Amino acid sequence: MSICDKRENVFPHDFAWGAATSAYQIEGGWNADDKGLSIWDTFSHGKGTVFEDQSGDVACNSYTLWEEDLRCIKQLGLTHYRMSLSWSRLLPDGTTRHVNQKGVNYYNKVINDLLAGNVTPVVTLYHFDLPQALQDRGGWTWAGVADAFEAYAVLCFRTFGDRVRLWLTLNEPYICAKLGHEDGLFAPGVRDPGVSAYRAGHNMLRAHARAWHAYDALFRPEQEGLVSLALNGDWAEPLDPRSPQDVAATERYMAFTLGWFASPVFMTGDYPATMRSQIEARNLAQGFPRDRLPVFVDTEPRVLGTADFFALNYYTSRRVRAVSSPPGTLSFKGDREAEDVLDPSWPVCGVPWLAVVPDGLRKLLKYIKDTCQEPAIYITENGFAQVGAVDLEDSQRGQFYQDTLLEVSKAVREDGVNVRGYFAWSLMDNFEWADGFSVRFGLFHVDFAHPQLTRTMYRSGRDYADIIKRNYSQSAMKK
């Protein structure tokens, strides 16, 4: 059965058919027009931090080639486009003391051009690129970063909110906290096992809550927009379903990944009970600091309920088994005492971590419905990687979108999940963080060796455009 072959369309008439990008990964212009440094500028300029010492200095050069990106968006027939703002392009030192009007002008043009083409912008305020000036003060481990983010968010809501109705405050705080502050694999490259990730995650939640409350109080009555944060999550199942230890480890895995940020916002207003009890037990047994996992206090704006929809980034699934960390070990994985492994029956695309499991998305959507008060859900990222020689006739990726959207339709039709949109990652090949340009997720190929960085549609782009055309046109007829 094909999602295109269904006579009865399962997607709502206002379903968001989109693709996503982020500022650092596509814009380039890293020091153009008074832009300030971001942590990814600093991190990628170091040696050995990124594949072949590549950087996003130029990336897709979208800062000057925006019209080419717009052409790609129109070719796909997207109804929505998810983008992010560069905090340091708008506020070079991270604060509102100096607003860079050239940055404001750029994003005004992008937003206005999208709307002129009947494409709805979905805007992310923070997609991994913290201003370096704020990192110099402690970054996400500094309590004052929440105040700086709130001021930045208010500026953006005031400047662009008359035209933007869908906002995301943060992208994947889990990745930023763990890879950036525990493993050191992402900017800012901090390796502080078992401590800084929790502190950074806590301050990101504080920052998000402040931004949501600011929007709710100052802008929602007039602008009538919606605000959330994009959470990444794998679906997880026990390696041995008959093992109570593996079942419990899987619950811990879900608590320490998706639950870390979903529980405070959507469930209880606090971190998952399993997460807090596990960390506190290790603190007591091994003499670790008692305050490693911070506490939400009444003097701060409440975190619970600060999302108007659930934004999910899903890529893969995992099997989980129980492990026991050596005494004295302080690490994120040690706290959860669970290890994730790939099921050999799952095909892997491109990079070793990315198993292709479309039905894992359906299961995760149902899990979110059941545990997070049945929210409206936007799938804000989902994609299929290509490495090695460029294959413009990428039939596997086209089939991936077909299979994945069929599972999404089952979640809607059979499981009653309120899915409101789907965004492919990504509109075009771009700078994929520590993998540089070696991994390609695009619906359009970008020739990074060509001076004009030419964009060419993959076959999968044509396939995705066909899915959109068939489903969107059917929806329009049923309105």
TrEMBL record:
Active-site residues annotated for this sequence: 381 (nucleophile)
GO MF annotations, alphabetized: beta-galactosidase activity; glycosylceramidase activity
Stored Gene3D superfamilies: Glycosidases
Listed InterPro entries: GH (IPR017853), GH_1_N_CS (IPR033132), Glyco_hydro_1 (IPR001360), Glyco_hydro_1_AS (IPR018120)
PROSITE patterns membership: GLYCOSYL_HYDROL_F1_1 (PS00572), GLYCOSYL_HYDROL_F1_2 (PS00653)
Pfam families referenced in this protein's UniProt entry, alphabetically: Glyco_hydro_1
Keywords: Glycosidase, Hydrolase
GO biological process: carbohydrate metabolic process; glycosylceramide catabolic process
Domain of life: Eukaryota
GO cellular component: cytosol; membrane
Protein family: Belongs to the glycosyl hydrolase 1 family.
Protein name (database record): Beta-glucosidase
Organism, as annotated: Conger conger (Conger eel)
